């Protein structure tokens, strides 16, 4: 239960002098609260206290409901997480424990909502046995099957294999 911020508006503003900001962002200067309220009423807008602890308090002339909506919308956009692409690279002769460690790392990325790109890189004579690299990719994707799914089958590129794993959305 999130507490909505409460702002003093119109007659609830207690200060006798306020610094006024117009709806277009222009500063109108310091004036009496009654005068600022009269100015807001003429424009059929509200007087909202945005910085109550400033000397003198800062108020804005705005449409209060619309202003609240815009602020909530901005907060929502700021909190949305963009998924990132994380790449884990390894060689075909990687040890079993090191492979498990990479799988655990990929699991963390997938749970955070990130895509994971697994890449097996061949060097020198390792390229003579591409089936070893494919086997390692299959092992690690099997370890991750409850956290993510392969976008498509592992693809061969000039020096190895790569596969993209997408996070599985958890139903709440």
UniProtKB/TrEMBL annotation:
<feature type="domain" description="Translation initiation factor 3 N-terminal">
    <location>
        <begin position="9"/>
        <end position="78"/>
    </location>
</feature>
<dbReference type="Pfam" id="PF00707">
    <property type="entry name" value="IF3_C"/>
</dbReference>
<dbReference type="GO" id="GO:0005829">
    <property type="term" value="C:cytosol"/>
</dbReference>
<comment type="function">
    <text>IF-3 binds to the 30S ribosomal subunit and shifts the equilibrium between 70S ribosomes and their 50S and 30S subunits in favor of the free subunits, thus enhancing the availability of 30S subunits on which protein synthesis initiation begins.</text>
</comment>
<dbReference type="Pfam" id="PF05198">
    <property type="entry name" value="IF3_N"/>
</dbReference>
<dbReference type="InterPro" id="IPR019814">
    <property type="entry name" value="Translation_initiation_fac_3_N"/>
</dbReference>
<dbReference type="InterPro" id="IPR019815">
    <property type="entry name" value="Translation_initiation_fac_3_C"/>
</dbReference>
<dbReference type="GO" id="GO:0016020">
    <property type="term" value="C:membrane"/>
</dbReference>
<dbReference type="InterPro" id="IPR036788">
    <property type="entry name" value="T_IF-3_C_sf"/>
</dbReference>
<feature type="domain" description="Translation initiation factor 3 C-terminal">
    <location>
        <begin position="84"/>
        <end position="167"/>
    </location>
</feature>
<keyword id="KW-0963">Cytoplasm</keyword>
<dbReference type="GO" id="GO:0003743">
    <property type="term" value="F:translation initiation factor activity"/>
</dbReference>
<protein>
    <recommendedName>
        <fullName>Translation initiation factor IF-3</fullName>
    </recommendedName>
</protein>
<comment type="similarity">
    <text>Belongs to the IF-3 family.</text>
</comment>
<dbReference type="InterPro" id="IPR036787">
    <property type="entry name" value="T_IF-3_N_sf"/>
</dbReference>
<dbReference type="GO" id="GO:0043022">
    <property type="term" value="F:ribosome binding"/>
</dbReference>
<keyword id="KW-0648">Protein biosynthesis</keyword>
<comment type="subunit">
    <text>Monomer.</text>
</comment>
<keyword id="KW-0396">Initiation factor</keyword>
<dbReference type="GO" id="GO:0032790">
    <property type="term" value="P:ribosome disassembly"/>
</dbReference>
<dbReference type="InterPro" id="IPR001288">
    <property type="entry name" value="Translation_initiation_fac_3"/>
</dbReference>
């Amino acid at each position: 239960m999130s507490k909505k911020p409460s702002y003093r508006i119109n007659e609830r503003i207690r200060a006798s002098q306020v610094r006024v900001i117009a709806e277009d962002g222009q500063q109108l200067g310091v004036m009496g609260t009654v005068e600022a309220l009269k100015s807001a009423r003429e424009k059929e807008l509200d007087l909202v206290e945005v910085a109550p602890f400033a000397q003198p308090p800062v108020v804005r002339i705005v449409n209060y409901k619309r202003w609240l909506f815009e602020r909530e919308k901005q907060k929502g956009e700021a909190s949305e997480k963009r998924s990132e692409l994380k790449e884990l690279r390894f060689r075909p002769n990687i040890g079993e424990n090191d492979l498990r460690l990479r799988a655990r790392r990929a699991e963390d990325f997938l749970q955070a909502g990130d895509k994971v790109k697994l890449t097996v890189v061949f060097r020198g004579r390792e390229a003579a046995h591409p089936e070893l690299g494919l086997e390692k990719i299959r092992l690690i994707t099997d370890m991750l099957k409850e956290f993510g799914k392969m976008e498509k089958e592992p693809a061969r590129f000039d020096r190895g294999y790569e596969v993209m794993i997408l996070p599985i959305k958890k139903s709440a």
